[in-house]
Records
---
Amino acid sequence: MSWSISGTYVAGCSCVVLCSCPYDGQPRDAKGGTECLGTAVFHVADGNLDGLDLSGVDFAFYNHFPSHLSAGNWKVGLVVDSAASGEQAEALERILSGREGGPFGQLSQFYGEYLGMERAGVSLAGEDKPGFTVEGRTELSYEPLTGPDGSSTKIKNAMFGFAPEFEVGRTTGRSDAFGLSYDASYGETAQYVFSSEETEGAAQGRA
């Protein structure tokens, strides 16, 4: 089956700035812990799975990385916005769990436990106050890091990234979902494009 989704994402996690997960480094939080707990919320501006329109849907992808990413044994869970239809939620679960191939199919080799899908209100905040909310679970605000010229700091060509280039920053807030709780510290955001047509080589570098 063929699928594609594209739009904007904002992510936050427990790692100190900067999170080392995109470079396959050992996670570290402010208390000296060596695990990464995080959430990435995606807005699908345009998307479909075999003709089923996924445009306009928001979803949250939760992670627990017990070590550097290529060591595997990840825990991942999915929350799809309650405004989405049952068909849309099921389609996104098939994509994110890796069953429909593409980049998430490649990443699923690292999954140790899939925590399932839940439904709740999911939304990205506006540009004036970036961040996201997952009803009853997570509320994070995001502020970009900036360089000497005032422009945002960006990372390019990371080994594990949701986009070829992404902006990095700090997040504040708290999350408690799927039994995974954390205080946010690191954040990132970018435009993303995923599809079932991506090659194996692109998968590791894109998601």
Note: The radius of gyration is 16 Å.
---
Amino acid sequence: MEHAEYVYTSGMSESDVDEYLRAGEHGVLGLADDNDAYTVPLSYHYDGDRFLLRMSEHDDDSEKGRFIETTETATFVCYEASTTESWSIHVRGPLREWEGDVDEKTLNEWFQPFRLFDEAIENVGFTLYELGMETVAGRETVE
């Protein structure tokens, strides 16, 4: 591919990964069920010790819920990219409902506003999940 444009990337340091995760707010969660994949954009909260994902509750028969039950190792990707600069971080591990307790004020501090898609506010609840950070890998553009 002699005419393809490219930029070089390299691995990020642990401190850079930590900094980007603390500053970020959203990404994409990848789930699986045998040969089927499911991805969903989500907001997250990372405080250095735990990686929490906020998921809406609509009903007990949601596609997202079915994939959560069948996924042994989930992958969350957060990134930013332009033509000349980019970074991405993959967080992989088990996904489990978070057992902690949080009030609405803290929930609003931890997460950006939730985007509704034709749902009535009173019909939407939230569950927090913790993604075990078994593997974390970051890459960024180098000059």
Note: The mean pLDDT is 90.
---
Amino acid sequence: MTVQPTLDGTIPPPARPRASDYQTWVDKVRPVFVEIARTGRRFTSYEIADERNLEDPPLPKTHWGGFIHRLAEDGLIEHVAFDETERPGGNHSVVKVWRGTRAARQGRVA
């Protein structure tokens, strides 16, 4: 398969694999975010997806945000700051930074 260089001549990174079923994807990635939340580490969803080589959901532009907000509604994570995205092609847009809630760090939420 031939890869088309970008306008500046660089080769874009390979596309992240994409899941075909949303609920199956949630079942795979939620334990990773539970694990991270228990550490108390600050993170963006992209950082975790990139570090753990997680596949994208069927509709990445909407499913990632909905998933992360569901984790917040469930009391697992909380918003703590804003930062610039590290996502390729993100053009330094602003993203939320999260961390595990006290309940998550104490293992009371999963």
Note: The two ends are 41 Å apart (CA to CA).
